[in-house]
Amino acid sequence: MCNILYLQVYFNEVHSSTNLMSTELTIPQGILKGSLSFSGAYRRFLKVPYASVVGTFQAPGNPPSWNGTLNVARGSSRCKQYFRHIRTPIGFENCLVLNIYTPTAAQKTPLPVMIFIHGGGFYWGSNTNLLYNPKYLLKKEVIVVTVNYRQGAFGFLCLKNQGAPGNVGLKDQVAALKWIQRNIEYFGGNPNSVTLFGESVGAASINYLLVSPTAKGLFHRAILQSGSMLMPQAIDDDPIASASLVAARLGYNTTDPDELLNIFTKVAEDDIIKASYRDQTNDAFAPYVFRPCIETPSTEAVITAAPRDILKSSNLSSNITVIIGYNDKEGIKWASKYNSNGFRDLLENFTQIVPENLDFPNAEGKNTFIRDAIRVYFDNKTSSDDVLEGLIDYFSDAYIMYPSVLTTEYLLRYTNVSVYNYYFKYDSNRNLAKMASGLRRVPGADHADELFYLFEPVIYQPLRTITNDVRMINRMTTMWADFSRNGNPNGFLSSKSKWIKSSLNQLNFLEIDRKLKVIPMPNKDRINFWKNAYERYGTKY
């Protein structure tokens, strides 16, 4: 299922051709020729350039201009990455484009703007309309923009020198926000009402932008879906070692930043992509090689201190409101990478899935943590189904839920922002990530499943949407769009299900299922296990 899904998306991107009525629009760079949706309900401008790649591993340059008319009616663009389903590198380095969608109904005032930043572990993914078609959000009278940014070594090689200062993928995102501020009015959007929303490392990216001076004033609200800057996969505390690892796979043995820069500059780009990739079978976190890093301070630097320290010292305005949430079975994504041999090896060698941002004083400290983790997640679980459930919960908590809770607490303790929390557990055949994982019988919502109640992926377009799914799509898109308008997601919610803001003394979660209800923080005992572990062993990252 997983291979078929992604092959369909890839080949549709390459070969699709539709006969749509186009529309033209003039911006300072030149004339754009977009298109109308089949229904005529919205316009789309696909692959609109927002910046130039002026150098590999360098921050983006000014947006290009053109003579005549640029056709942005169809198609998609991927940044360079390894497409694991056909086992080959794909994409282009010159990939800094936006997809912009605007409803065609006439409006009296400029529309709120929702900017989506995709996930993918900082090493794969794109803003393709074949996965992220916002047709349902557009019905709520908002403009939607989806962003491409460089990934892998091309976005996150961090040598902390002039040749590869690091975090250029985040700098791409900042450049996109600046472009949108300057140009969204031409599309009918309001630059003073901009909401970022993203999933997984897209959410972590938004979290970094939220607290970075480089993005100050470029957006006004944020939605962090299943990710934050405090999750282990959102920071690399030793980027030179990561670069050295990939260089060794290419046949070079050095830890010198200048020598590494020379290697990455002269080696073919496809070879870098191949050397950066590792199969996730029985090693779910193998591909997470290049990630955000702490940069040498400069006017362009996005991250200049450890994530926890940044949150503690950030000076965020009380006018900013944030939604932070996650799904009930996030860990399906990672647990699905293990076969029966892998499960057995994990329980015998649990250390391989201990988060790397835990620092134990000695072997006994680590063994104590492992014994406690096995007790919390695997005690009295003897059947394979029970062990799988424990592994799913472990991954859910360690890599998504606890970091999201901690981020919420830091924002409430150290800043003036308001936070809404949610807990998505709706289960349906529309939970595309779970359907593709091979664990479709596990109840609940996998990592990224909530996205398919905000967007319409191509695989669902020819299918009839069942009544309950239609209701969930309407709920999700209404809450997200209402939040983008005024920072309050309660527009259509009744007093019984009113989404209550969290406070430091009481984290309130809107449980999103067939019925909506506000609950205390779910899985509190498991979250407290991680809280205690990080208080004892956590690093500054």
TrEMBL record:
Signal peptide per UniProt: none
An example Gene Ontology molecular-function term: carboxylic ester hydrolase activity
InterPro entries: AB_hydrolase_fold, CarbesteraseB
Keywords: Glycoprotein, Hydrolase, Serine esterase
Domain Carboxylesterase type B: 23-530
One Pfam family linked to the record: COesterase
KW Metal-binding (keyword) present: no
UniProt family annotation: Belongs to the type-B carboxylesterase/lipase family.
Name under which the protein is recorded: Carboxylesterase type B domain-containing protein
Organism: Loxostege sticticalis
